[in-house]
Design brief:
The complex is a heterodimer of chains A (330) and B (256).
Chain A: E1 3-8, H1 19-32, E2 38-45, H2 49-58, E3 64-69, H3 78-92, E4 96-100, H4 103-115, E5 120-124, E6 126-129, E7 135-141, E8 146-152, E9 157-161, E10 178-181, E11 193-200, E12 214-218, H5 225-237, E13 241-244, H6 246-250, E14 271-275, H7 281-284, E15 292-297, H8 304-307, E16 310-313, H9 316-329
Parallel strand pairs in A: 1-2, 1-4, 2-3, 3-10, 4-9, 5-9, 12-13, 12-14, 14-15, 15-16
Antiparallel strand pairs in A: 6-7, 7-8
Chain B: E1 2-6, E2 9-11, E3 31-33, H1 35-45, E4 51-57, H2 63-71, E5 76-80, H3 90-104, E6 110-114, H4 125-133, E7 137-145, E8 151-158, E9 161-168, E10 171-175, H5 187-195, E11 198-201, E12 220-226, E13 236-237, H6 241-252
Parallel strand pairs in B: 1-4, 1-6, 4-5, 5-11, 6-10, 7-10
Antiparallel strand pairs in B: 2-3, 7-8, 8-9
Classes of the chains: A alpha/beta (330), B alpha/beta (256).
Chain lengths: 330, 256
């Protein structure tokens, strides 16, 4: 029977990344168009972690869960994880492999696909099965200005999928999941990349960006610390959480824990207010699925206005204090 | 120390124009070195006494881009160019570059790539090259340091924080964009670039056949390209601050 395999990413903090449950929801949809193909997942993790997730896996409608546990897997390693994944994939021959388009997923997936001499479509925002039963993977290119639907001539057909694009399962699909333990064959690997340390972003001070209803974010246009103070005052006046672009973080204006974008967080608030943000794709992928976007920028040609619902052309140093005053007075 | 920097020529994506058939107009669009690759070059220049070769797969016009890299301090330029390469996906591109490296530049210590190309944004070609060369890869790197002749420390920028790894060379490293101003060419550099010999290799030169490259060698293909529908519609501009405050109130669900 055909099989759709999902990669269960384990994060630095040793939990399973939520993108797996978004992939699961989509995979069940695809399965219906593929004669009810099996939906399975692959978990590579430190010893004992799989046990904690068995209930969640059973409720996600997985037919099979392949588990490769080893005490050497406390941190993601391209060399170990690619080897284990490739071995298992060669054995089970899935039709389709879906992986979250996180930094880990985008590091691992091309290593696997190149080794299997198959195709991989990056950072997809939509997936479907076409009339010939092929995976049709749609993704933005040219900074989101062009969409391309990509097909693959070889098996397995692989894609990485952007987190938070698909909704997670809205209700449990309970299955009699088979848990299959695979012994990792890694003893002969001479590792060339050694883990030294991991410095976690500190805890978010105002409130959590993941659950925030309104986010006020600043870019390089906020210029200096005084600018970020103005931004904070405005955020406070409307009860919003604070976010920043990588540019602002690198200028030392904001801490890394509030960075939004490609190597930061992906957020989907009700309202996103972009202040002094030009709108580079590396930032906008992290916020473009917000319900509403308001952009304030000096430059009327800034690309941020291409994705905004409401724009205001003006100097943030003048506009934001005025807005704060309006809302504080209420 | 020998460093290879893989660069890509990309259209200036901020300046996209559409043809009547809803395809991207490529003629008359200015080409630039992919901004991420500019920082891969920058990182290479930080290694003192290294011999730096810039390498690209592309049309013959990509010659000017290699010269640009030489003008800021790279030493050699290699252009892998063949009409048969057209339509290559990331797998075929990785294979082509890996074959060129294997057959013509095998004695490298470090390969640097940009993490993404701003046109395709796949982030796949670097790992594809590394995989096909059978060397380790380190992706999402913001800086390299503590090079001791055999290994180097790489600081990786990930969603949850910063990871440091130590990688034994030879290896391939994908660089994120930095924030310093890139090096500007010197007058001497421009002269050197003008007189430099750019080596050009064809498909046969690097030991590949038509089945390995271009559309034929690519497992994936584009079945449809289309302009995204703008779910939000056009951006509405507020002329005054009260309009802006009202929108914030409504969209943010604020009372009053």
């Amino acid at each position: 029977m055909a099989e759709i395999l999902l990669y269960a990413e384990v994060t630095q903090e040793n939990y399973v990344h939520t993108v797996l449950f978004e992939l699961a929801c989509k995979a069940h949809e695809l399965s219906k168009k593929l004669d009810n193909a099996e939906v399975s997942t692959l978990l590579i993790c430190k010893q004992g972690l799989a046990e904690l997730y068995k209930e969640a896996f059973k409720n996600s409608g997985f037919d099979k869960v392949y588990i490769a546990e080893d005490n050497r897997f406390t941190h993601y390693s391209t060399e170990f994880f690619a080897k284990v994944a490739i071995d298992i994939i060669k054995e089970i021959n899935p039709e389709i492999i879906l992986i979250g388009a996180t930094t880990q997923g985008r590091d691992l997936a091309p290593r696997i696909s190149a080794s299997l001499h198959t195709g991989l479509t990056a950072d997809c925002t939509d997936l479907d099965i076409n009339e010939k039963g092929q995976l049709a993977a749609t993704r933005p290119t040219f900074g989101g200005k062009l969409m391309a639907t990509i097909l693959c001539k070889t098996l397995p057909q692989m894609a990485t999928v952007r987190p938070k694009v698909f909704k997670p399962l809205s209700e449990n699909i309970v299955k009699d999941t088979q848990f299959i333990y695979k012994k990792p064959d890694i003893d002969n690997i001479k590792r060339k990349v050694e883990f030294i340390e991991f410095i976690k972003r500190t805890n978010i001070t105002i409130n959590d960006l993941d659950s925030a209803q309104i986010i006020v974010a600043g870019g390089k246009g906020m210029k200096n610390e005084a600018g970020f103070e103005i931004l904070k005052d405005f955020a406070k006046s409307i009860g919003a959480s604070l976010g920043a672009t990588r540019g602002a973080v690198d200028m030392g204006l904001a801490s890394q824990d509030i960075q939004i974008g490609q190597t930061g967080k992906t957020v989907t608030p009700k309202l996103y207010i972009a202040c002094g943000i030009s709108g580079a794709i590396q930032h906008t992928v992290g916020m473009c699925d917000s319900d509403k976007i308001i952009a304030i920028n000096k430059d009327p040609k800034a690309p941020i206005f291409d994705i905004a619902d409401i724009g205001f052309v003006g100097d943030v140093f003048e506009v934001l204090p005025k807005l704060s005053k309006i809302f504080v007075l209420k | 120390m020998k460093i290879l920097v893989c660069i890509k020529q990309v259209p200036d994506t901020t300046d996209i124009k559409w043809t009547e058939n809803n395809t991207i107009q490529r003629e008359g669009v200015e080409s630039v070195i992919n901004p991420f690759d500019v920082y891969a070059i920058e990182e290479a220049l930080k290694f003192k006494d290294a011999e730096i070769t810039v390498l690209t797969m592309g049309p013959l016009q990509a010659d000017s881009m290699l010269r640009k890299a030489i003008s800021v301090g790279c030493h050699k330029g290699v252009l892998i160019s063949d009409k048969k390469f057209a339509g290559a996906d990331t797998y075929a591109t990785g294979k082509t570059l890996a074959s060129a490296i294997k057959t013509k530049m095998a004695d490298f210590d470090l390969i640097l790539c940009g993490q993404f190309a701003v046109d395709g944004d796949t982030a796949q070609t670097g790992p594809s090259i590394a995989s096909q060369l059978g060397i380790p890869q380190v992706t999402y790197v913001r800086k390299l340091d503590r090079f001791d002749g055999e290994s180097v420390y790489a600081e990786r920028e990930l969603e949850e924080g910063l990871e440091t790894v130590k990688v034994q060379l030879p290896a391939l490293v994908c660089m994120l964009k930095g924030f310093e101003e890139p090096t500007r060419p010197t007058i001497n550099g421009i002269k050197k670039a003008k007189n430099a010999n750019i080596t050009v290799y064809s498909m046969e030169d690097i030991g590949l056949t038509p089945e390995d490259v271009g559309i034929k060698g690519s497992p994936t293909y584009v079945s449809r390209a289309f302009r995204p529908e703008n779910k939000r519609g056009e951006c509405t501009f507020c002329e005054d601050i009260n309009c802006l405050a009202d929108k914030i109130k409504v969209f943010g669900g604020l009372n009053g």
